[in-house]
Amino acid sequence: MAEREPYRASPVLERLQRHAQEAPARIAFSFVREDGREESILFGELAARVDALAGALATLAASGERVLLQYPPGLPFVVAFFACLRAGLVAVPAPLPRKHGDGQGLLRLLEDAAPTLVLSTRDAAPLVEPQLRGHAAGLVFTDAFDAGQGTMRAPRPPRTPLAFIQYTSGSTSRPRGVEVTHAALSANVEAIGEAFGFRRDSVMVSWLPPFHDMGLVGSIVTPAALGFRSVLMAPASFLRHPLRWVEAMSRYGATCAGGPDFAWDLCARRYLAEPAGREALDLSRLEVAYNGAEPVRASTLRRVRAAFAACGLREEALFPCYGLAEHTLLAAGGPRGRAPRILSLSKARLEAGQVRESAEGDPDARELVSCGPPAPGVTVLAVDPDSVRPAGPGRVGELWLAGDSVARGYRASGGGQAGEAGGRVFGARLEGGDGPWLRTGDLGFVREGEVYVTGRLKDLVIVNGRNIYPQDVEAVVEEAAGFLEPNRCAAFALEEDGRERLAVALEADRRLLRLARRAQQDGAKVAELDALGQRIRTAVARRFGIALGLLAFVRPGSFPRTTSGKVQRSRCRQLAARAELDLVYATREARRAPHPQRRRDDPPALAASSVQADVMIAWLRQYAARRLDSRLMDERRSLAPHLLLDFGNRGLLGLQVPKAFGGRALATPDLLRVMEQLAALDLTVATVVGVHNGLGLRPLLRYGTEALRAHALPDLAAGRQLAAFALTEPAAGANPLAMRTRAQRVEGGWRLNGEKHLIGLASWAGWITVLARAVGADGGALGTVALLVPEDAPGLRQGPEALTMGMRAMVQNALRFEDMFVPDAQVLGHPGAGMEVARDAMAFARLGIGALCIGAMKRCAQLMLRYAGRREVAGGLLAENPETLARLDELSCAVAALEALVRAISAHDKGGELPQEACMACKCVASELLWETADALMQMLGGRGYLEPNLAPQILRDARVLRILEGPTEALYAHLGAAHEICCGFIGEALGAPLLADSAREAARRAGPDAAHGAGELCAWTMLAAAAAGAGGPAAAWARRRLDALLAALRRRDERPASAELAARIAAYALAIGEPEQEAVGEAQQRDPLLARDWDGGGRPAAAAAATGSGTGLAEGMGDGAGAGAAEATRALVRECLLNSLRDGGVEDIDDDTSFAEAGLDSLAAMPVALELEQRTGLQVNAELLYEYPTVAALAAYIDARLAVRPAVRLASGEEAQRADAGTQGDGVK
Q1: What CA–CA distance (Å, rounded) separates 559 from 538?
Q2: Nearest to 871 by CA among 856, 861, 859, 884
Q3: pLDDT 10s digits, 1165-1219
Q4: What is the rounded distance in angstroms from the CA atom of residue 33 to the CA atom of residue 74?
Q5: CA dist 179 to 120, 195, 327, 405, 853, Å?
Q6: Residue 698 and residue 688: Cα distance in Å, rounded?
Q7: Cβ contacts of 713 within 8 Å, gap of 6 or more
């Protein structure tokens, strides 16, 4: 509502009119389009156009009414804004609605501002008009206005002190309208002019949005009022090509340019990455390069200086500043002509609200950049927000401001002065009543007359009573991630389980997006994603001493920002709390139920565990001599029945099961001692016990419900049943994203279908933990799920046994699940987190393999010494030979080093998470050392070693499989290489070897991402060396020699021939040896059909295929040949739809039998393929079908089969589909 008394006309407008009269031909504004074309307006022309438009507006709205400005960046906005001031109207600048947005932001603004008019251009009509339906405001296209009509000869006296309403960016709350008066605007323009030293020949270059304070007041109002040229460009043009801004500075001879910290950082990074061809940049005229609107980082200032110093940019031009819309714009900055001042402060003290300097290079140091002295006419005070007293020297407080630039307040819907919230912000008073002051909501302090900003009061993350600045966390995350450009990370507090936890959201770049897509087919990429997440978690934990909860990578373009580009931490928090972030990849800190065992720090329990293990080990030694026949079991490929019965009676099959369920409740170090003893007796027997206790029982112990544990554990601990673990599949290995076994959500549980292979103990087991892809009732992916299934469940089929080279007495066979129902009570952990269960079990199993290898290596050493001490060779006993002594010495050192590593890792298994990468490294080095040892045993025994009764052949066979069991060495090395930062963190902290950690980190960095295998191998053996160094003795020197030898070998690996060259070399061998194949008839294994249960009257049983146990699923059968009968038109249709999606990835053609995964089809690309097929066939085509029918032939056959029962359906051509699609969109239906 308009005020009763008129106010003085705008001082800013008076200045603009004076410049138009004194220098009408001087350029006021230029707008540079993305293609480089320039449009300029002179001061005289600007004043005339402003007068003309103001005259027209005066006929449409009364003085004091609000006018919403809906313009794309450009000169029409400039004219419209000043025309509103000239006509006595209150301008309300606002961004245009997004093309594909919901327009809610504009609707809320229309409701709050209640404008009489909306000004825009005809080009923007499609974006603006739909939002105004049902709103009373009139829409005026100012580019359709005839400049010859309605010119305003004299300004209309305004009936309100307001010049415009600036809606804040909403970085911590919903945007609010700040009512800026003509007086405050004029005062701030004067302060800016004095602080920045503007002159008539100044030139500003700006990309900042015209609807925000820095773009509007700083880049439009100030140049117009002070009479110098401003060169404008669209924010989108800058964001697409940041260096265009810098090039414009050079081209126009800018004396002033500025933006948020992220903009400068982005430009510097891009320039440093691609400096070629940009040597002609000239920034020597730049006097003020201002950096504001968000915290100014010292690293950015250094990077900008390093990038552009050669272009003439002086350090004295760097101008950090501080301002906010509630203060019109500028509050502090500079000072001009002096290099920025940077303080190094203690982070720990800052978290406590204290300002204490820290030595440069101190890990606890945080650099703070001075935002300069308060602007002319501004007072800045740091205030304790709780006591509302001045914070005092050396204390952080909330920054309060006073002066003529303070805005009137927040607009309250319905008009008038803002209510209670505005009073708290704009009418604050100190304890003694001094005021009013403007509360900024920013934390900081004033030191030696200069303002330092430490963060936002609302953004503070309070964890365990500590105040953590999100900017500090974001800086650590950006450094750990290594790929982030500025302003793409938000740290915030998120409530989980009733308490606040630290959470981080990051915007994924294109590289990470591609990596996430490829991870769906490639296990190494999964490891790379996991390693990146763990690297970030480790960095945050190391720096702040707290665990990171949610770590979320969001899809590019969906990261919450304000319209001015600031990070919206509060919006991130809201979206995360509602699970509405558009995720590419996310992890949470593992939060498990308490371990069912007794407390690990309970001394009586630990003592009892140790005694129990000693009793078991003593019993095993005497039992083995009487009852164990390893060679006989190996030859018969079966364990002796009495063995399992006796082991069950002695508790060996319930080593960590709580005593309440009949187990022995051993601590992990004691369990590993028992496993070491078992391996020294028989590696196969030890592996059986290890698979049952580790992979079999551990998931149930740690993730099963109390009822499920009570039901299953007594029989399992007593050996009346065995437990198995089913993860690996024929085509997927252990890669969860390539698994084809599916568990579909149904009422009361899950419907399981799929196949597993090479599952140890599967056909002997009473309970099996099965990992499957979890699918919702609607077919949507839910992640993975771990299910505990009994051996007699309907739909579970045991497949044929695998005839293995080693571990021959332990059964390994395939499993098939045919529409098997699994109730919810048998879910381990929670749906979607099945791989958390699997990773924990596999980490434990890998640690156990380390103990097995120690036991087997000690047994080999015994046999070698026994033989060498009795074998006469030329010159005496073999034991006196220097080579024999050297081998035995190295073997004893290897055993000692490995014992130290296993001991160090096992100390971490206290009911929490085992260090995954350390367990992998342990498994790798242990299995490699055992293989070397078994080979050395065989070599020392000579011909005797080749004889089966002499133990060495079985040890060699059994040792060989340990290099593959629980992940082949090469695959695990690749994972460790991708996760080398985590490995180095464990080496430096857990193993206490920071120098070794730094050395490994540097070597991995030099190796680069293409040498992940070498980097992982290096990390694993560095871990062994670090553990050995801690133990001391000869093992430390031996491990260091091994590590040095590996480093030298890795350097020699740099030169490798191309794969094509190697393939050509090997292909040439056929000329020498041919292509040998054997087509032996083999043995007859088929039962005579006359004796079969099901007989079809001919010579073959009706269920012969099922009896073989080697059938295939429907999709696999179709993939192998059922697609051959598909119509060529259907195959062509499938091929066309696929290539429409895959061509962007460089795929030009695909044959009928190539799997979609090999062609690069991921889950994201599958969606448009399915949609197009659905549209063109008239059938319902779910994206999941592309996994079930994974070739052109198989999918085409499936479609033909479906079409056969719908003969009226005709396949649509591409053009017909497009026409149909266009028609649908025209009806407004999507």
Answers
A1: 24
A2: 884
A3: 677 787 788 878 877 776 667 767 778 888 888 888 777 765 444 455 544 444 4
A4: 9
A5: 22, 24, 10, 12, 75
A6: 14
A7: 654, 657, 658, 661, 662, 663, 697, 700, 701
Same fold, 341-404+422-456 and 845-1052: no
With a cut of 50, list the residues of the chain below it in pLDDT: 1-6, 148, 170-173, 414-418, 465, 590-601, 1100-1124, 1207-1210, 1214-1230
Domain ranges of the chain: 11-250, 341-404+422-456, 461-587, 845-1052, 1122-1226
Give the pLDDT of residue 1221: 40
**What's the pLDDT score for residue 697?**
97
Q: Comparing C-alpha atoms, which of 29, 402, 47, 11 is closest to residue 189?
A: 11
Q: Quick one: pLDDT at residue 1087? A: 67
Domain 341-404+422-456 has CATH 2.30.38.10: yes
- 1122-1226 belongs to CATH 1.10.1200.10: yes
Which residues have CB under 8 Å from 112's CB, separation 6+? Answer: 177, 411, 413
pTM strictly above 0.70 = no
Q: Which amino acid is at 874?
A: A
Per-residue pLDDT at 576: 83
Residue 920's φ and ψ, nearest 5 degrees, are: -60, -45
- How many angstroms separate the most distant Cα atoms in the chain? 121
What mean pLDDT is reported for the chain? 83
CATH of domain 11-250: 3.40.50.12780
Distance between CA atoms of 354 and 344, rounded to whole angstroms?
A: 13
Provide the 3-class DSSP secondary structure of residue 1095.
strand
User: Which residue, among 314, 394, 307, 400, has the nearest Cα to 349 in the 3D structure?
Assistant: 394
Tokens (6 digits) for 761: 């103990």
Look at domain 845-1052 and name its CATH class: mainly alpha
Confidence (pLDDT) at 851: 96
1070: CB partners within 8 A, 6+ apart: none
Give CA–CA dist 672/651, Å, rounded.
15
Q: What is the CATH number of domain 461-587?
A: 3.30.300.30
